[in-house]
Amino acid sequence: MFNLPSALHVYNESKVRAAIPKLANLSLAMIAGSLLEEGFDVKVIDLMLIDIRKANDTANEEIIRFKPDIIGVTATTPLFYEAAQISNIAKSISPDILTVLGGPHASSLPFDSLKESSFDCVVVGEGEMAIKEIAKAKSLEGIRGVYCRKNIDGDISSEEAQKTLDVPIEDLPFPALNLFEAKNYICPKVIARNNPVGPIEMSRGCIFNCSFCNKKVFGRKFRIKTPKRIVEELLVLKKIGYREFHVLDDQFTTEIDKAKEICEEIIMSGIHMSWNLRTGIRVDKIDKEFLELARRAGCYQVGIGFESGNQMCLDKIGKDIKIEQSIKASELIRKAGIESVGFFMLGFLSETEETMNDTIRFAIKLNPDYVKATILVPFPGTNIYNEFKNKGFIKTYDWSKYNFHNAYEIYQHPTLSWDVLNYYYDLFHRRFYFRPSYLVKRCWKSIMHGTLLNDLFSGYETFLKKNRKEKGNVNTYQRAN
Prior knowledge:
The chain is of the alpha/beta class. The protein has two domains: 2-157, Cobalamin-binding domain (Rossmann fold, 3-Layer(aba) Sandwich), CATH 3.40.50.280; 181-471, tm_1862 like domain (pyruvate-formate lyase- activating enzyme, Alpha-Beta Horseshoe). 39% of the residues lie in helices and 14% in strands. It has 18 helices and 15 strands. The protein has helices spanning 6-9, 26-37, 55-66, 80-93, 104-108, 110-115, 128-136, 227-240, 256-269, 288-296, 311-316, 323-335, 353-366, 383-390, 418-433, 436-449, 452-464, 468-471, and strands spanning 2-3, 45-46, 70-74, 98-102, 121-123, 146-149, 156-157, 197-200, 203-204, 223-224, 244-247, 274-281, 299-307, 339-346, 370-375. The longest helix is centred in the C-terminal third of the chain and has 16 residues, at 418-433.
């Protein structure tokens, strides 16, 4: 199995490039764990860790050396073409190697994924059970959740593929993170207290209806592991050599009482690992008790999906939260002594320059420790993608351009040009981070934590080091604010 080279490099030209997590690929670790349970030999090659210019040669060499029967890759939309290249390399070595693609893009566009690549099959939804069936089967026909080719002409069958395999969360294998070397996964200090950092998944599924979110892999049914199972996984992480863990769940606090039980179990276990709830929590799904328990359990930072400072925009995207709830949640997190990272988005269909200014002002008012803004990208599998497509707004289906950390002109916004969107993306970060009050607070915290030089480097990477988009697009749009 291969982790793609741009899993890390995809952020190189973004405003968040100084705070990119370098983590072992948990999806591949889960698939590997499932295959190991069946007695198969498994190897994971993390191309993210090497010079991207040598990635294809490395993949070629590893395939020749290991002589696999099956090669598996997982890919998000902007990395689809890199995944397809791995399949091409495998087929050039031996047409008999079975190539399998999973992940968000394959789950959203299974037919297109096969037509635009040389993969033999794609897995839709959760892959742990499907990969077992693929590895043991004499024929791929009839495996639930699997789209495959019938013949050389590319005729694709899908009768059983529509019925994805439901996986009881307690039956999931332990992730085979021992196949990754912990020492390779060192995250920037802005998002990590104790390296190396390992990933963990505590729950699956999201019951909410945000129009920009893809539910094709884990679905809408929320499932959460028992506290005992989670602590067992953490003990394995610690034994492997990880000193901190990051929670990768979509919505860990959906059932807040169970989230509290997990925090209590972590406290009682005496595991003493710092952790980061970085993928985001909803402002209406936390309370004072949870935050206090999380901090006692070792949580020092949480991400929060504020998205917008304009209530109309929030309502239009189905976020189903109120501005007042964001303000209250921000205050609770601050009082609990936990760092916060605010997530915001620019470019919704109802967006105007006025609403984007609302978002900038709101971010400053909330004053989290860090903020990240992105320009909206309508990913396949989301409601907003369907809306953009149906209205004829999408200009390209070049999936490599669907990178919300460095968005290209992939659609025609009904009221805003891309020069305007890029201008406000830059303005958002500058207005927030260049405030004297913020700079003084950040400098003081950096001195207290011994991270001053690291934070200065992060500031340089974010604001002074020009990326290619900035070099070609500096001052293309100016507006007095």
